[in-house]
């Protein structure tokens, strides 16, 4: 989503996708949406009703899963209609609120990782402060996540043009490319830098052989769990960074160069980059399932409960 004089895809350009390409794009984006919605919904239910997941990241994981659920439900279908020039909005007044809400969710995904990485890094390097850290502080951090996600979207929503072309309704920011670049830096490149620094600090602590205070005041089992947690958070953070990075760099490069390239090759490139960025919609549940034994146990417990209820319902219908 870039300003009109910086856009990588001009809506006025006539699409030249072949029928197989249209089918592939539709299947890819719809499958991404369905997969993200399903996995994140299972994650929310498993963490809320489960009894094995660690309380250390439980609140943040629920918030992150809600954000990813909304992202998966809204963004892939919108981008499918955007690339294929399909009707998505029935009224012009729907465009700006949807743009504002979707953009806020997109960057909330990243700010969730920022807060989680900073929180874990602080507790690792200052373990004695953990006694003062409670759920009140976690909910406060979640509030900060949403504030940091919403505030940068306000200038874009104010400087938004609602346009209509051949019955298609779309909206684009009207500010200049330098304002766009500054906003992208605030919304993406700055938080990415924070995530990278925090993650590297966590990995340095993980790889360090020195017996600092965290080793002296915790058992080997606690240390093993902490190491697994650090690896899991690091993998999730790097997946988020390197799936979003090509798309954001491409948008920024297009803005700095006037955004005049609307060739078929550039459009195909944008489809691929947007598809890669949407991996964030379902990557977190997969990473947590692979690295977190307690999360796997909660997923299995949820699955058993659902299958048990379904079997009872089917027996009731057959009786």
Annotation field: number of helices? 11
What CATH architecture do you see? Up-down Bundle
How far is the N terminus from the C terminus? 55 Å
Count of domains: 1
Integer-rounded radius of gyration: 22 Å
The amount of beta strand, in percent, is under 5%
Counting DSSP E segments of at least 2 residues, the number of strands comes to 2
Order of helical and strand elements: HHHHHEEHHHHHH
Specify the overall morphology: globular
Query: CATH fold name, please?
Result: Rhopdopsin 7-helix transmembrane proteins
Helix amount: over 70%
- Classified by CATH, the class is Mainly Alpha
Q: CATH superfamily, called what?
A: Rhodopsin 7-helix transmembrane proteins
* Main beta-sheet annotation: 2 strands, antiparallel
Average pLDDT taken over every residue: 77
Output the structural class. mainly alpha
Give an overview of the whole structure:
The chain has a single domain, classed as Rhopdopsin 7-helix transmembrane proteins (Up-down Bundle). The termini are far apart. Helix content is about 75%, strand content about 5%. Strand 1 and strand 2 form a beta hairpin. A two-stranded antiparallel sheet has the order 1-2. The chain has 11 helices and 2 strands, in the order αααααββαααααα. The N terminus is likely disordered. The longest helix is centred in the C-terminal third of the chain and has 37 residues. Helix 3 packs antiparallel against helix 8 and helix 8 runs antiparallel to helix 9. By secondary structure, the protein is mainly alpha-helical. The chain is globular and about 65 Å long.
